[in-house]
Amino acid sequence: MTGFYTLFYKELLRFWKVSLQTILAPILSSLLYLLIFSHVLANRVQVYDGVTYAVFLIPGLVMMTVLQNSFANSSSSLIQSKITGNLVFILLSPLSYLEIFLAYVSASTLRGLIVGSGVYAVALLFYPLPLQSLLWVILFALLGSALLGVLGVIAGIMSDKFDQLAAFQNFIVLPLTFLSGVFYSIHSLPPIWQFLSHLNPFFYMIDGFRYGFFGTSDISPYISMSVVLCCLIVISGWALWMLKSGYKIRS
Amino acid sequence: MTPAIEIQRLGKCYGALVALDNVDLVIQPGEFFALLGPNGAGKTTLISILAGLTRASHGTASVMGYDVLSDYREARKRLGVVPQELVYDPFFTVRETLVIQSGYFGLKQNDVWIDEILHHLDLTEKAHTNVRTLSGGMKRRLLIAQALVHKPPVIILDEPTAGVDVDLRQSLWQFIQQLNLQGHTIVLTTHYLEEAEALCNRVAVLKQGKIIALDSMHNLVHSTRGYTLEFRLSSEELPSGLQAWPGKQEGCLHSLKIKDSSEIETALSILRKSGIQVLDIKLLQPDLESVFMKLMEADSAGGA
């Protein structure tokens, strides 16, 4: 346990020491999204009955921040350690692949939750946000941040250079997030786009998370939970296999 | 006694390239062992397999009786590795680095030992300095400190003195010798053959993934029989009595191969009789470097 805890603590310390960049900056950019989108799109986008666009937008933005930061944490930590070579200190240690996996994912989850809570707390100062079920909110925040933390581990292991990681972020994470219904309800989309949205795992995370606040969602939170959980299990299996086999990290 | 390191028929291929070719090697506890060879001979590959950084293609390796693959946790707890590259984590201070490294090995309270290592490696004053700002020599010492946090019985140093200035090299070696005297098994690779010769009691020479020599330092160095007698003479030409002796000449500097010290007297008396003045005289004993060069040449010739 000490080994796992140490790596977890090291990962926390790593982002905490640069919290201006890893916590405050993403909170600020999410709030800018909120400010601009809620101003520009208010009364233009139809969302749930009786819910203003700004209030609808907040849970989406919170979740988007959670997901992006969880991904950023594990992926950037791993690629930096690989490129600077200091991953060797972990590889030389008796840490098991499971401990390494859990430490990176837990730290990523925590960063996602911290940044997400920051956005939520500041948004609450300006907008009255309902909270129907804290349990669903926490559940989806945890599942989503863990899922992206795992994806970050995979991206960090697979990438050899920073631009490969950036490609992962720009061509996979960002489009899937933006097309997941952060900024709109998928019911407002044409059928084909609704169908495509259902293939996007990020949609279920956002939709389920939003359900916790409004008690309404595009689809049942149970379905969303099942989809997210399945995705988490599958990609965790993939990441664990990579760590166990030493893929790209133990030649 | 359980060997400190035991390697059996260890091989590693990268595609068609054979980096290690069926290597067998046993290193006993308490040895100060040198692993020598030219670049690309397989030294780092061998170390990497022991450390778990590289997977062997075939064969087995164990540290203090624990297989490096199937029993990797136990094996790694007993092994400290100083990597060749100057790697560090720029987020942390010297002390944080060592506390974290201790934690990876399951050690929660390690402050007393960390203080001791910092002291021995002359890093106490830098304990709270960010690693990024350390000089190259200090980073090298920190790497050694990191390899020692868990008091491993076996310590492997891959080129520990590369790029380290002379003063520091001396103090590093003193510290490593002290560790050896305390019972730690030391395995090192180095390009400075005189260092290996001064410190190590046994040596393996690797070439193209194979061990081409494995012996005690004494035996290996004395495997080249005889000495070299070097004269600076007043004449470029040797007296006729010495012309048949094996050797070489550069101007007035003559090097003669002799089998034992009795030949010194013979050579001197021939010179005296011929009236040639001896300006300077040196008796060169065989050293590791000459043996090493000979091994490299001999093996190339054999392989051709």
UniProtKB/TrEMBL annotation, chain A:
Residues 17-246 form the ABC transmembrane type-2 domain. The chain crosses the membrane at residues 20-41, 53-71, 83-105, 112-129, 135-158, 165-186, 222-243. The keyword Membrane applies. Pfam families: ABC2_membrane. It is found in: Cell inner membrane; Membrane. It comes from the Bacteria. GO terms for cellular component: ATP-binding cassette (ABC) transporter complex. Keywords: Cell membrane, Membrane, Transmembrane, Transmembrane helix, Transport. PROSITE patterns: ABC_TM2. One of its GO terms (molecular function) is ABC-type transporter activity. InterPro entries: ABC-2_transport_permease, ABC2_TM, ABC2_TM_bact-type, ABC_2_transport. Belongs to the ABC-2 integral membrane protein family. This is Transport permease protein.
UniProtKB/TrEMBL annotation, chain B:
Keywords: ATP-binding, Cell membrane, Membrane, Nodulation, Nucleotide-binding, Transport. It holds the Pfam family ABC_tran. One of its GO terms (molecular function) is ATP hydrolysis activity. Gene3D superfamilies: P-loop containing nucleotide triphosphate hydrolases (3.40.50.300). The keyword Transferase does not apply. Residues 5-233 form the ABC transporter domain. Belongs to the ABC transporter superfamily. This is ABC-2 type transport system ATP-binding protein.
